[in-house]
Every structure is written in structure tokens, then in C-alpha cells.
Amino acid sequence: MTEKLKAKWHSERVQREVTMVRWGTLGQPVLLFPTAGGDAEEIERFHMITVLRPLIEAGKIKIYSCDSVAGAALIAREKNPRHQMWLQNQFHQYVRHEVVPAIRKDCESQEIEVWTAGASIGAFHAVAMVCRFPDVFARACAMSGTYDIRRFYDATDFTDDFWVSSPVHFVPTLSGPHLDKLRTRYVLLPSGEGRAEDIGESWRMAKALGKQGVPNRVDPWGAHVPHDWETWRKMLPQYLGEWTK
Questions:
Q1: Which one of 27, 33, 157, 198 is at 20 to 30 Å from 231 when CA atoms are compared?
Q2: What are phi and psi of 219, to 5 degrees?
Q3: Where are the domains of the chain?
Q4: Half-sphere exposure for 222 (CA within 13 Å, toward CB)
């Protein structure tokens, strides 16, 4: 049986109660972001934990997930677009300065590096965390990603909070030690080309990374593969299995 642990606390950064869940007790920590406005247990309801259970129970990975605070606010049109953009940036800060310390405490290591993963908007956050904080996050598995998310906002003007948290936009501006560290990381961008998929989003993100010398790969799964959990339940065990051999 896969051991599960749930924690809740109030985050001043995102100004609400937040939840983090962990499955497993040993292995490489993987922070798996929900889709869009999903909560920390979405991945369990959609049977992702079920397909990852062999790797979890073999002690190769520990899966963590947290509420998609920024995505939920965007979908709900919380307050106004400027607030939603602010919350997107704050969500990333919350992950870096609250979720990561909680993961490291759970792993009993203040130095352990974290992998990220996610699908759709979850892929956006997975890539953003590696690119914003390469001192902590070592690699990302970003499945069926959407990277230029401006179309989801009811806005024509975008704030600094948006630009600094959107990897397809900020990666081309990076330089110095930050970029040097990011060049030691890796971003995998698998995507189908079937129903509701747009692999062009992954290629655009890959181009931004590649121009900056950041190791990455787009992995096309073919025209028959849809934008759906059935796809991601095949993708993630395969890649995490390869990465933990």
C-alpha cells in the first residue's frame, strides 16, 4: 500500500489555506502539478498514483502535489486580471519558499534537488519552476504543455508579475549565473498531436530553451494521441522509470 500524507497550512504568499500531499516514503522527490484549477489530490482521483505505484513502492520516487492556486483563480476569474497575474507569481514563490522546504524536511535533506512534472497548465508550472529556480529544481517532465497562457486572461495589458513567471517569455531574457545553472538542467516536452493537443506550444518552449543553451527535448507521441489523462498516465511512468533506472 502506498503511504499517503496530507498537510495543510495558511500561506501568506497566496493568502489562503493550501494543501500538499505526498505519496511514498523513499526515493527521488517529484513535484507533480495538477492541471488548470485542480487540487493536490487531483492526480490520485485520475489514477496517476495508481500507474506510478510500482515506482513509488520500489522506493524510486516520492510524489508530491499541491493545489493549483493560480490556475483555480484564473478559471474562477478571481477579482481581476492584475490580481490573477500577481497570484501566478506568488504561487511560484509559495512553491519555492514553502513547498520546497516542506519537501526537503520530509526527505530529511536540506540539499536534495526536486524534479517537476505536470500536464497542460501543470506542464507550464513544471517548466517555470525549473527555469525560475534551477538551484532547486533539476529537471521537468512537461506533458502536453500550454506555455503562452495570455489567451486565458481577460486582459490586453500584462504586468511584470505575468512576464517574470511565464517561461516562454522570460527564458530569452536570462543571463549570468542564473542561466549558467539552468544550462545544467533538463526539460522534457512530450506531447500528442491528437484531439485538443497543440504540439506547437511544446516546440515554441523548446525553441526558447534551445536558443539559451538549455538542454531539452520535444517527444512527439503521434497524431492519434489526445490531450487527456489516458495519455499522461502512459507518459509519466515511462519517463520517470527511465530517469530512475
A1: 27
A2: -120, 100
A3: 4-243
A4: 4
CATH topology of domain 4-243: Rossmann fold (3.40.50)
List the grid coordinates of 225: 494521441
DSSP per-residue letters across 160-214: HHHHHH-HHHHGGG--HHHHHHHTTSEEEEEE--STT--HHHHHHHHHHHHHTT-
pTM value? 0.97
